[in-house]
DNA sequence: CTCTTCCGACCGAGCGATCGCTCGGTTTAG
DNA sequence: CTAAACCGAGCGATCGCTCGGTCGGAAGAG
């Protein structure tokens, strides 16, 4: 029985999109030619176009996959946690940190290539981004309403916490000084201080 | 006597680099052709190349200007503040927030186009970025040593604070719901909670 | 003062290379 | 035999960049 070695990714990407994702991370969308995607995927250029309509569509699929993966994991984490505000908060922050630390490629693209999306796809992406932010907003709001969180600025604190977790994708290395567990523990502690969790 | 209307920018950019900067923000470096930079600057393509060696050099100049502006402002803010840790911290966080809110274009490019830099320029840029981070690290360290800041994770908290300030450039709008003063006040309050400032 | 020279600022046209993408096939699995 | 999977070659467009100039104003010569 095989062990799932990609704990954060619910559904795997196709090899082609995986290749495209890596190229987009390293060179950016406009800096990546379809020829290097094809070479990385072990295909010819027409081989690529047999599976995907355009380079733009590859980007859209990669970004949609990233956002829906994160959202689904967030929902699961919230559903699996106790219902009190602090437990919900810990679950969501932990999920955010893990995703951005262990799924760096999709996480990085999800916020660095927004401007490369066609207008309609960009609107959809931003809607997904806002929905993700709203999860945190609601958890923080609930904690403030329950008197568990003492921050005087729930909206801004919520955004600050999401962005500090998001940017973990920019610097975290699995082989760096912090183990995954240490990383999550420390960011949980920091995030709790940021919203002013009691205790 | 003229009033300086660009409070965050110590030295102005040339009109050409200003045009390049705007294009890079909107389309990204690889998504921007020199022809659109030229059009935006009101010049022909050879006109551009009379002043700058290459598109790459324009990017390097824009990014270097952004980083050195921020660093100089940070030094000035620290020098102008009282020497106690909390005052130094407030000065540095305020400076960071103001720069990323009011100088959105250079701030955005400074962290979104790193991968578009040539290898040597990228090394230099990252060195400047690290120096900027070190300013915050030192202030936080001093506060922890003085018993003013209670965070159990100074290094990670320092990075979290810098990144939450940095990402202000991604969403803040001058004509949005938050006035500049409100923005700075709230981020100061949030950052103080994040490092666990007493009182 | 005029005339000549010179130089920095600028541009029309276009170079070779590469871009995203497609045509007209062949190969391969069932 | 069919259909999905795949590819060599190459299309028109655009890329970064340059060639060979024009032009106006400052500087020097008479």
Automatic annotation (TrEMBL), chains A, B:
<dbReference type="InterPro" id="IPR001647">
    <property type="entry name" value="HTH_TetR"/>
</dbReference>
<feature type="domain" description="HTH tetR-type">
    <location>
        <begin position="10"/>
        <end position="70"/>
    </location>
</feature>
<feature type="DNA-binding region" description="H-T-H motif">
    <location>
        <begin position="33"/>
        <end position="52"/>
    </location>
</feature>
<dbReference type="GO" id="GO:0000976">
    <property type="term" value="F:transcription cis-regulatory region binding"/>
</dbReference>
<dbReference type="GO" id="GO:0003700">
    <property type="term" value="F:DNA-binding transcription factor activity"/>
</dbReference>
<dbReference type="Pfam" id="PF17932">
    <property type="entry name" value="TetR_C_24"/>
</dbReference>
<dbReference type="InterPro" id="IPR036271">
    <property type="entry name" value="Tet_transcr_reg_TetR-rel_C_sf"/>
</dbReference>
<keyword id="KW-0238">DNA-binding</keyword>
<dbReference type="InterPro" id="IPR041490">
    <property type="entry name" value="KstR2_TetR_C"/>
</dbReference>
<dbReference type="Pfam" id="PF00440">
    <property type="entry name" value="TetR_N"/>
</dbReference>
<dbReference type="InterPro" id="IPR009057">
    <property type="entry name" value="Homeodomain-like_sf"/>
</dbReference>
<dbReference type="InterPro" id="IPR050109">
    <property type="entry name" value="HTH-type_TetR-like_transc_reg"/>
</dbReference>
<protein>
    <submittedName>
        <fullName>TetR/AcrR family transcriptional regulator</fullName>
    </submittedName>
</protein>
